[in-house]
Predict the structure.
Amino acid sequence: MANKIEVKDAKVYYGPDLTLKGVSMNIKKNTVTALIGPSGCGKSTFLRLFNRMNDLIDNCRVEGEITIDGVDIYSPKVNVNELRKAVGMVFQKPNPFPKSIYENVAYGLKVNGIKDKYLIEQKVEESLKQAALWDEVKDKLKKSALALSGGQQQRLCIARAMAVSPSVLLMDEPASALDPISTTKIEELIYSLKSSFTILLVTHNMQQATRTSDKTAFFYMGELVEYEDTRQLFTNPKKERTQNYITGRFG
Amino acid sequence: MNLLETELGELKTLLNDMTLLVKGQLEKAITAFYTFDKDLAKEIVKNEKRVNGSELIIDAKCEHILALFNPVAVDLRFVLASIKMVSDLERIGDNAKGIAQFIIRCEKPFDPALVEKFRFREMTDTAMEMLTILSESFESDDTELARTIFSKDELMDDINVAANLVLAEYAQTSQDKEALLQAIYFLSVIRKMERCGDYITNVAEEIIFYVKAKVLRHKRKHIGKKMSEEDNE
């Protein structure tokens, strides 16, 4: 299977500080990759490389080569708005717009110039179905998204990200603010979505990484310590630092 | 030390204690065999309840750790290995009890000439040596030491196989029906000792599994040597 994403010696500086210290990684298409590590290890910085969210941070400088489908996403020729259409993102805290459920999902399509109402309706339904939310909201699409539960709001955000047909989904602790039932739904969703998307998932929840991902990358102090098949990493890690972290014997 | 480490430490202590308990049971069974001490044999039968009780406590401990702590990597392997080890240790206890029951049932001591022909002394010495090594290698997580058990198990197997021929020859020469019956009991005791060797070997394999993440079950004889070399690299 071809590599969807290739990262070669990626370095991220915040001012003079080297936060990500030369990470290289290949990610296959239609897989889920979990990024784990203690707070401040660089996993979220790494995640934000793929939709160039780090560009929004003052004094941030990126080095190295990152390609998606063979295209260098840090090339001056790349339109960042187009890139963010192709690389959707879901954040830790659900952040629906203060609009109706329907408008939340349709928003990205309208911003991208799609005016065909029928096409938008079709895409909204399809995205909500993909996000396993359709059955719960189909009768109240015009109601405010803010009236939904936290778990439903997060699935709405996933539907919103999917509506513009990205090929990569970035998820930054998408279930950390949710109750166990909503968490299970998000995890089932992640598992089912990998047939359509390549997913990168930042999580502090080890069991979530083991349940949902194909591969896991362990970061520590800006370095990629180990990148392995999830089953291998959680049963027999090669590096002692990984073993210490996942078994809770850190520091 | 975090909570999980404390739980795992307690599990290891329980398994250590059970290994020593089972070792004591087998040692007593062997002593009762040579001394024909029926009281000691009865004590072994009575003590079997303690072995069974240990098994239940360790099973519950493993269940508790799996449910509450979600162990991974070496911790997960240790709990999985413990579940299997406790079952094998309990069976060694069962076999010690089985040997004791033969002693209780027999009317007179086993024939010393037959003890020699069956190489039974060699067998019981080897079984006790295997249990001593097992206890030490488990306590120190020493896989190299655990591996030394495998060749000793092969010796136990050889003695067990050879015992069939010894019994066949004995049956041809012996005219005494009671003596022959006792020889058949003796063969059953040998079978039980051989099974103990197998269970001790299984536990040794589990030590290697949780320490080195290597599965030796069903393939040890073919690749044991090669894997030992890999361990040393």
